Amino acid sequence: MKKNIVTQMSIIIFTDNPNVVETRLVMEQLISKNIKVKYLAPWDLSLPNLPDLDASVVYVPSNMLHRGSTFEFLHRMLILKEFEKHAMVVNPVDSILQYSKEHLVLKLKENDFVFPNTLVTENIEEAYNFVKTRLDVGKEVVLKPICKARGIGVIKLSEIRARSDLLQFLLWYNRQHAEGVYYLQDFIPNQGYDVRCLVVNGEVVGREKRYNPNDFRYNVAIGGSAEAFNDPVYDELSVKVAESVGLKITGIDILPGTDGLPYVLEANCFPGYMALINATNIPIHKKIADYLASLC
Known about the structure:
The protein is α+β, with helices and mostly antiparallel strands. Among the domains are: about 120-185, 2-Layer Sandwich (Dna Ligase, domain 1); about 190-280, 2-Layer Sandwich (D-amino Acid Aminotransferase, Chain A, domain 1), CATH 3.30.470.20. It has nine helices and 13 strands. The protein has helices at about 20-30, 70-85, 95-100, 100-110, 125-135, 165-180, 235-245, 275-280, 285-295, and strands at about 10-15, 35-40, 55-60, 90, 120, 140-145, 155, 180-185, 195-200, 205-210, 225-230, 250-255, 260-270. The strands form three sheets. Strands 11-10-9-12-13 form a five-stranded antiparallel sheet, sandwiched between helices.
């Protein structure tokens, strides 16, 4: 029986949003390397008869699993599992499936990394008590969605209109952002910035310092600023965190606390990096394309 032989290096980009700038940059870089690139979306494929891939690598740059219904999640998960039987999937399928702030916290605790005191729960009474006991003694609490990025839905709970509104606010937040799961963290007094380290295949390929004097959220997407951060002080930590969550391409967000400790806040499975490119002139898309090409 003859085996099919791929004569030209070929990569599939599997995404529900091919117009993201970073994705297009990676695609263009791969094509410049004489690599055949094909876009596929979830609705381009039907199971059980998955067509021949004719590719050795599948790159998944978008968070399509957390944007649809439960049924869409299951369908897309099974497509990824089928891909994995025939090609290298990046990031690895298990890491994509488990990706969330909650999974990160479990790995941070397991490996004794420093992170803010956290509660993840579906129980609104537990959430209410966690917040109330802290606000009553003057502490700040931050409420976040477990999977959204770019600072969306990240709220300081001391900023709600009145303490008597807390329970009603949690009910509203559940409908708007939480989707049944509350992710609560103590607010960490910090030095006025965080650091994102972009990790590709176990190496930090770029760093940026992000800050916003008008907001406790430092995301550039919601008005923060970025500049190069040339100190490798968090490189080893970032690589270890990336390894703990199984991500080959990830943005690790670290908050330097006023107590001198580096608090790990995020390991983004689908990191944006245009602000990092603009701040450092490091061609992150080329680093990612080089990594993908090395897998072919």
